[in-house]
Write a structure and sequence with these properties.
This protein has about 220 residues and is of the alpha/beta class. The protein contains 10 helices and 6 strands. It is globular. Zinc ion binds next to helix 5.
């Protein structure tokens, strides 16, 4: 039996009974805290990284954690984003890239993708991030170039996200927040995009600084 099928049996016998109440509650509906967009890479375990339970993240995964810019063409990402943002009213969207990303390695070297025509075309949605690296990172080592690409790709896909009408409407209303992350598979570190400094900073200091700023703004308003 494949390991994943054995896992289902284990889930039914020992995991489900312990969380029966949660699953019964979930059968009545969902109200996820975030739309979480990340890469399909098998090494990313979203629930483990974020320590969330079923029902808390609405997840879209694809090679390269890509969000195609909005067009009149309907795709799976576009429909899922629309549903999460306009029907489920998620208050947050996270785009989470990761280290050792095969898709980003491919985006950097598209000439190696001739045998994978769909992958090659899909990764053209990251082309602008590659251009930024070519322009700004020409003096960097290969490892630093890749780090820059992982980050720039997240920043680019955040921009693409804003072209989706449902996202634009919620951003205008002010009740939707976008987050750009990069997860390090080897160290477990997660860095978050800080728009003010246009850089990626450790997730703990990013959110601590944000909370402090909010408390300060609240204090000033009072
Ligand atoms: Zn990846």
């Amino acid at each position: 039996m494949p390991k994943f099928a054995e896992g289902v049996i284990k889930f039914q016998n020992s995991v489900y009974p312990e969380k029966k109440e949660l699953f019964e509650k979930l059968s009545k509906g969902q109200s996820p805290e975030a739309l979480f967009i990340t890469c399909s890479d098998s090494r990313i375990e979203t629930a483990m990284i974020t320590q969330t339970d079923p029902g808390e993240l609405f997840i879209c995964r694809n090679a390269g954690n890509i969000v195609p810019p909005h067009t009149t063409h309907t795709g799976g990402m576009t429909a899922s984003i629309e549903f999460a943002v306009a029907a489920l009213n998620v208050p947050h969207i996270v785009i989470c890239g990761h280290t050792e990303c095969g898709a980003m390695k491919g985006a950097m070297n598209p000439e190696g993708l001739d045998a994978l025509p769909h992958v090659k075309e899909w990764l053209s949605y990251s082309r602008a991030a590659v251009s930024v690296v070519e322009q700004m990172g020409s003096d960097l080592s290969e490892a630093d170039k890749m780090k820059m690409l992982l980050e720039q790709n997240v920043v680019l896909q955040l921009q693409h996200l804003k072209t989706h009408p449902a996202v634009a409407a919620r951003l205008a209303k002010g009740d939707l927040k976008l987050h750009g992350w990069v997860y390090d598979i080897k160290t477990g570190d997660v860095s978050a995009y800080d728009e003010a400094s246009n850089s990626f900073v450790p997730v703990d200091s990013h959110y601590a600084a944000e909370a402090a700023k909010m408390a300060h703004d609240k204090g000033c308003a009072a």
